[in-house]
Amino acid sequence: MLREWLGSDVADISRVGTRIDTFDGMERVPGGFGARLRWARTRAARFRSEFVSTGTPDSVDTCDLVTMPYPTAFGLFRASTALSPFLSITNRMLVIRWRESDGRRRVLLFEPSDVELGRKTPYFAALGARVPRPLHSLLVKEHGTVLDHLARLRIAPEEVDYLMFDHLHTQDLRRWVGTTAPQEDLGGVVKPLFPKARVIVQREELAAMAELHPLQRPWYQAATFEALRPDVFLAIEGGHVLGPGIAVVATPGHVLGNQSLVLNTSTGIWASSENAIAAECLTPEHSRMPGLARWARTWGQEVILNANTLETTAEQYNSLILEKTLVDRSQADERFLQFFPSSELTAAWTQPGTAPTFSHRAIHHRG
Fold first, then answer.
1. Which pLDDT tens digit goes with each residue over 83-97?
2. HEC string for the chain
3. Whole-model pTM above 0.90?
4. Its family (predicted)?
């Protein structure tokens, strides 16, 4: 069923913005992952200088959605020596607004997770079933829904043009884009809350969802996509400049079709994805968390991956280096970079040894 769905009317993103060809051919670079790492650094530096000239968006706002537990062994891949088996991450949505050259206003929501339906993701459903009910409120804190935040920002759902995720783990989009068939758990056919919105996604990730590998299945809700209209998706292969100071760049590895949001703002260039869960994971030599600096020093690794899936770990490492090369240093503390994890490590007294040395917490920009 899903294979047939993917073969139909998924739209192409060519109607939006400008395609980025700077990173084309990375998978064909001879010499293995080490040669591709050097290639990624060089190409990222080239794109960085080009990207600044595209301008800046009108605004970027940050909206906290949910703080929840996450295995330390996933989030701080092999490096952490903290005793706590879990840490906390805060999932956030970015709201980006800009104008096209003809004056049309655009709104992009990056990581607009439906937290309620996301709990049905197989991994988190199994984890939740093992946690005693009284502990749920201690470990999980919901900060506000996508619609609550948009109302605060005075953005009507009808004004939203694009939805984008770094990857589709945990996502259930049925309430956002509507369904073509009745949904038993949602009370019938679902009308879209964002009637104009299109979902920007790498074509490779959509294709992979037709036949998930056993290592991927705990993290996807693939069946929920069967009731969606294929034309709600804008499929992309590689990178694309969406608007002034707004780009999507392919960063495969965490999943094959992983992608990162890149923004040029008043403080310089940012990148956002879930390739790492803390800014210090890109400069672990400055981390005070137990184990990170020692791991990086011992093994000569300059980044610490978020590795709940291991589809192609070396490729994910190279992608995070690409992001590291693109971004500017933080104005708050120049030891750390303007990498904004879409799910950021958050201190919790219940999880000793996992408090971040440095947190961004938000991107705020007014053009």
1. 999 999 999 999 999
2. CHHHHHCCCCEEHHHCCEEECCCCCHHHCCCHHHHHHHHHHHHHHHHHHHHHHHCCCCEEEEEEEEEEEEEHHHHCCCCCCCCCCEEEEEEEEEEEEEECCCCCEEEEEECCCCHHHHCCCHHHHHHHHHCCHHHHHHHCEECCCHHHHHHHCCCCHHHCCEEECCCCCCCCCHHHHCCCCCEHHHCECCCCCCCCCEEEEEHHHHHHCCCCCCCCHHHCCHHHHHHCCHHHEEEECCEEEEECCEEEEECCCCCCCCEEEEEEECCEEEEEECCCCCHHHCCHHHCCCCCHHHHHHHHCCCCCCCCCCCCCHHHHHHHHHHHHHHCCECCCCCCCECEEECEEEECCCCCCCCCCCCCCCCCCEEC
3. yes
4. Belongs to the metallo-beta-lactamase superfamily.
